[in-house]
Write a structure and sequence with these properties.
alpha/beta, Rossmann fold, 7-stranded mixed sheet
């Protein structure tokens, strides 16, 4: 009998196996037998964890872009948006071409696509998203008067743009001192009438707005002829019923025949003959929409809509000014961004 153990120690050594671990310098360490058991478990856990982290890193977001029409401001906003999104983002684009009926077809494809986010560009696209898309985050932009369209939904966030109408009117008055009546055409189904504050600011400068409503592209020629006889300038709005690549040439020629200057909203219009164009950098608006998209895709809740105030730019066509007998004041020349 081993007399080196007390009876209690002897009993414990026989009835209770020693745990497969020991203390070394105050640290609890595993014995070789336990290490052999734990190693495959730990390796398996490490593999699962690494794959989960890798999947998160490799996940490329899928964004669907729905635009109301194929016009330069919308395309520039989309380009700005894409340039500010991660390089591995995949994009699918749909163009409504001003057709509200196409919205349902595209919305069905978007819902089935598994997209992470929808960018709706223009009022028609935003309306389609509100009516047809409920379970995918939507960022809408290039909508001048979002309140008119009730673009409120838990999954929608807007980047609305407030153009500096007062500044534009002041510039017009500087360029055309005798300007009293500005006319514009619009489709009430696609474009809201000018807001009350714009009308008020114009009235303070002695300027009155005169409008004609159209419901189809076929109504534009007749409405334009009536309008040109009553106004001193024609202001183009971003309305896909009124303004297309084909109709712009007609609108410009008809205004020239009456010696009525045309006011555009894109430098391309002035390059093609409009006297003056005011625009905001649509690419800046797209980049702002991308900033919002980043927030949503990072897992944050959809933030409330907010107004974006980009810098205003201006283009002038000197040939048109000469044809119309309009001199460009020196004070205005220094503010022009592009001259044609």
């Amino acid at each position: 009998m081993n007399t080196n153990h007390t009876p209690l120690e002897h009993h414990a050594s026989r009835s209770q196996p020693m745990p497969d671990r020991c203390h070394r310098n105050g640290w609890l360490t595993a014995r070789p037998g336990m290490t052999a058991v734990l190693r495959p478990v730990l390796l398996c856990l490490a593999f699962i964890l690494s794959q989960t982290m890798l999947a998160g890193l490799l996940h490329a977001h899928e964004v669907v872009i729905l635009k109301s029409a194929n016009i330069p401001p919308y395309n520039q906003a989309i380009a700005g948006f894409k340039s500010s999104m991660p390089s591995d983002t995949t994009f699918t684009e749909y163009d409504l071409k001003g057709d509200p009926q196409a919205g349902r077809t595209y919305a069905g494809k978007i819902r089935a696509s598994g997209a992470d986010l929808v960018l709706a560009v223009g009022s028609r696209a935003a309306i389609t998203a509100r009516l047809e898309i409920f379970d995918i985050p939507v960022v809408y932009t290039m909508v001048l008067h979002p309140a008119k369209y009730d673009l409120k939904a838990p999954n929608m966030m807007g980047v609305s743009v407030k153009p500096p109408i007062g500044q534009q009117l002041t510039t017009m008055r500087t360029l055309m001192p005798n300007l009293k009546r500005i006319g514009y055409l619009y489709d009430p189904e696609k474009t809201a009438p000018l807001p009350a504050d714009a009308i008020s600011q114009a009235r303070q400068l002695g300027i009155t707005f005169i409008d004609r409503q159209v419901r189809t592209a076929e109504q534009v020629p007749t409405a334009l002829r009536e309008l040109l006889s009553d106004v001193d300038a024609l202001w183009l709005l971003s309305d896909s019923t009124v303004l297309t690549d084909e109709s712009f040439t007609f609108l410009l020629r008809a205004a020239f025949d009456r010696h009525v200057p045309v006011i555009g909203f894109d430098p391309e219009f002035s390059r093609r003959g409009a006297l003056i164009s005011f625009w905001i950098d649509s690419a800046d608006i797209g980049r702002e929409a991308a900033h919002v998209a980043h927030t949503i895709l990072a897992g944050s809740t959809v933030p409330p809509p907010r107004a974006f105030h980009p810098k205003q730019r201006m283009a002038v066509n000197l040939g048109t000014a000469e044809y119309l007998g309009i001199a460009i004041p020196l004070a205005l020349q220094s503010l022009v961004d592009e001259v044609y």
